[in-house]
Amino acid sequence: MSRYVGLIGYPLKHSISRYFQQAALDHYQLDIRYQPWETVSSRLQDVVNDLREAQNVGANVTVPYKEAVLPLLDAVDGLAGSVGAVNTIVKEGDRLLGSNTDVRGFVRALDKEGAFDPEGKRVIILGAGGAARAAGFALVQRKAASLAITDGIFERAKGLAAALESYIGNLSLRSGASRIEVAAFPWQNVNSAAVFANCDLIVHCTTIGMKHSSQEGASPLRLEVIPRGVLVYDLVYNPWPTPLLRLAQEAGADILGGLPMLVYQGAASFEMWTGKAAPLDIMFSKAGEALGLI
Fold it and tell me: Which of the residues 66, 91, 121, 211 is marked catalytic?
């Protein structure tokens, strides 16, 4: 009997996960199908509960459900609990366990493809959803000097800033680590060049500019506010390059797209579901092919 892994989110037209995940499963000749499970919010609980059926192995979770899925699971690991977001579900027996591989994927891409060490650096995060939470916690772990967070819903930005402040406080108590400055600011301030003047890294974590989204073709930032020499890390991977990254290049900034993070977090999920080493070369090749890069 074939077994299944699903991708839970809405919408999913932009997603290429099924291409590189299926290639990895086929590499090991596993009788597992990776399927997109586009899910409206009213169906989320039912879809998650259906994971308990015998044929299902687990799932990835993407926008907009990385936070909403937590109370529907039997347990979450320590990192996912701290971050407050789950992107990977593994079924063990009839229990559903939540993890967050976005943190690992975010950092690995920043290190390997971005060649950027965030220690001591000033960072601005655009967005405060599940991906932004993973980015924020990853940057705290890597000892960024400051994090400034904004979101279209200011209360979400303030909530993420408060969660990070609490996490930083606990780290400082345990290890004596130096404090990291964290602040939230209103979204309308992204139109001010002064906000970005002294930052080293801009991380874009919303769906603005994403293919098949309601804001396809848009950029969260104007050309005039992007500083020369900053690294702009856009977690949107489809299309390539995104509207934001086109403007960043024009402004003389360095750029990093979301594809490496997508593959690295997916590889970590693959290893949790299968217990096998992810074939990264195959996964990157299929992901690039799906985006028309190869």
Answer: 66
